[in-house]
């Protein structure tokens, strides 16, 4: 029987760690720049497994571990010029220790993490942010780290054995000390600060950047272990049972490989159950076609986790990230996603169609994907909605949101909707307007020659009324008055009858059954010219 990857991962967790009182999932991020959708898949997958574990009746907790003690290398391309000029002064320092270049948060790391953290309630992501500086002082973390430092030769042998088996030629020397002290003088925590000896909880070092010699106290978090050591220590200290990983960690000899060996052989615990995922790519449009780029925190490439919420509902993003499937969670990665900002209307449409199917289906996998995707309680029925593309078209013409809703009412799009459904339309109309302002939606008028065939399919009365109204409009008569007069002259009295003439204008000019108020449509010069060309063809 098919099962969703989150369900299979939860089953593996229960099998690998039976009888735990509290199961813990973890996602991780480095705060070097904007937290984007490529980072968010880690958080959503972790959150999905958390929710499936809870459905199985166990207590669960989730963390987003922030590697905020990692060294700063270079400024983001989008940073203020003033910060770029002074960035060299911060090189090698922990992200947490650097001031916020924009001046709105307490430090550099928080500037990028906080927007993502504050968006979690909107996505219904249940992860608690845990900063590295806090984790590195935890008693259980420090205890295991001191054990590693006192027996570093054994640790080196384990890591080198795994790397050698994977064909790696670059191995750790016997004298390697797996710790990066932070220089008390210049604040660096990078490769320039060389550990030289360990005595109890203190690591003696020399900083080649400033020449300072000193000692760092491991128990006080005055430094950090390198990544291949920090990761398994985190698993142990936080008692992690599940963590998603990028597909690069499937490679033999990766940090995950060495971490698994170290936690099993040295720390006497099983590593967390993983789910691997492929990367998300950013689609750029050029005159010669589209190009794919990796999302980049430093370059600012890609949409931020918080930025998505300006353009589309949270559940649409969760669905896009969770709809993927694999046969074997240990040997396959969730497929990549070529994210195209211009396709957001289609992503929303895809979710809406999926929602209709999932709410009326008995398929357990579909129902679970839907349950894991939505960020609000499951509705009792399929919600009535206006399609996102339709909302974009309305947003292109409306003066404000209330005006847009009035346009939708006139078009009959809100008929039969309950108040909560209309509120949903209103929220999406705002999102569509935001997307439109960035995407640059253009009203595409029909080729008058192609519109002739549709004209021939209209009822004779509607044909004559359209021609009469079009001539009046071109001659300067108010569009509403023109339609009313021409409709009455052709025996099309009453609102419903006049609507046939309005529909004819939308059909022949836009190729759609509805559109903006006719006054707004025909006031544009390009629309009037299109109408004149159509009349010339029809009267020729």
Give a written overview of the molecule.
The protein is an alpha/beta fold and about 550 residues long. The chain folds into 4 domains: about 1-135 and about 280-375, 3-Layer(aba) Sandwich (Rossmann fold); about 180-225; about 385-440; about 450-540, Arc Repressor Mutant, subunit A (Orthogonal Bundle), CATH 1.10.10. The protein is built from 22 helices and 14 strands. A 3-stranded parallel β-sheet has the order 1-2-3. It has a 3-stranded antiparallel β-sheet with strand order 5-6-7, with no helix packed on it. A hairpin with a 2-residue loop joins strand 5 and strand 6.
Condensed summary:
It contains 22 helices and 14 strands.
């Amino acid at each position: 029987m098919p099962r969703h990857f989150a369900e299979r991962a939860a089953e593996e967790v229960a099998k690998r760690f039976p009888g735990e009182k509290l199961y813990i999932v973890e996602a991780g991020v480095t705060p070097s720049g904007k937290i984007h959708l490529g980072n968010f898949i880690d958080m959503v997958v972790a959150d999905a497994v958390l929710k499936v574990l809870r459905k199985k009746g166990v207590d669960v907790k989730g963390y987003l571990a922030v590697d905020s003690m990692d060294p700063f290398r270079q400024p983001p391309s989008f940073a203020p010029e003033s910060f770029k000029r002074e960035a060299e002064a911060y090189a090698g320092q922990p992200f947490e220790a650097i001031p916020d270049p924009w001046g709105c948060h307490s430090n550099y790391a928080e500037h990028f993490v906080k927007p993502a953290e504050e968006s979690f309630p909107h996505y219904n992501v249940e992860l608690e942010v845990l900063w590295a500086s806090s984790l590195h002082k935890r008693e259980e973390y420090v205890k295991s780290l001191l054990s590693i430092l006192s027996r570093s030769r054994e640790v080196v042998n384990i890591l080198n054995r795994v790397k050698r088996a994977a064909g790696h030629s670059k191995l750790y020397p016997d004298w390697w000390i797996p710790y990066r002290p932070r220089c008390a003088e210049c604040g660096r925590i990078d490769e320039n600060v060389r550990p030289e000896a360990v005595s109890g909880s203190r690591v003696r070092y020399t900083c080649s950047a400033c020449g300072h010699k000193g000692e760092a106290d491991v128990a006080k978090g005055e430094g950090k272990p390198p990544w291949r050591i920090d990761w398994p220590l985190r698993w142990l200290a936080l008692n992690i049972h599940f963590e998603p990983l990028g597909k690069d960690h499937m490679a033999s000899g990766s940090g995950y490989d060495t971490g698994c060996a170290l936690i099993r052989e040295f720390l006497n615990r099983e590593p967390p159950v993983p789910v691997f995922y492929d990367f998300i790519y950013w689609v750029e449009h050029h005159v010669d076609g589209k190009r794919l780029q990796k999302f980049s925190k430093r370059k600012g490439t890609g949409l931020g986790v918080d930025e998505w919420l300006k353009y589309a509902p949270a559940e649409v993003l969760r669905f896009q990230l969770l709809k993927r499937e694999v046969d074997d969670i240990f040997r396959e990665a969730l497929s990549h996603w070529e994210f195209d900002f211009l396709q957001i209307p289609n992503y929303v449409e895809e979710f809406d169609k999926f929602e209709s199917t999932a709410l009326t289906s008995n398929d357990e996998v579909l129902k679970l994907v839907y349950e894991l995707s939505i960020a609000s309680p499951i509705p009792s029925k399929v919600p009535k909605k206006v399609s996102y593309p339709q909302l974009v078209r309305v947003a292109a013409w409306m003066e404000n949101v209330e005006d847009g809703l009035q346009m939708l009412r006139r078009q009959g799009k809100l008929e039969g909707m309950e108040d909560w459904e209309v509120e949903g339309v209103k929220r999406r109309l705002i999102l569509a307007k935001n997307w439109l302002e960035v995407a640059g939606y253009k009203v595409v008028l029909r080729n008058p020659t192609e519109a002739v065939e549709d004209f021939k399919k209209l009822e004779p009365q509607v044909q004559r009324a359209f021609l009469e109204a079009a001539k009046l409009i071109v001659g300067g008569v108010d569009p509403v008055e023109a339609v009313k007069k021409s409709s009455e002259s052709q025996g099309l009295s009453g609102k419903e009858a006049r609507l046939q003439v309005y529909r004819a204008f939308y059909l022949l000019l836009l190729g759609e059954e509805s559109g903006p108020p006719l006054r707004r449509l025909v006031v544009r010069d390009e629309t009037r010219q299109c109408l004149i060309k159509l009349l010339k063809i029809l009267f020729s």
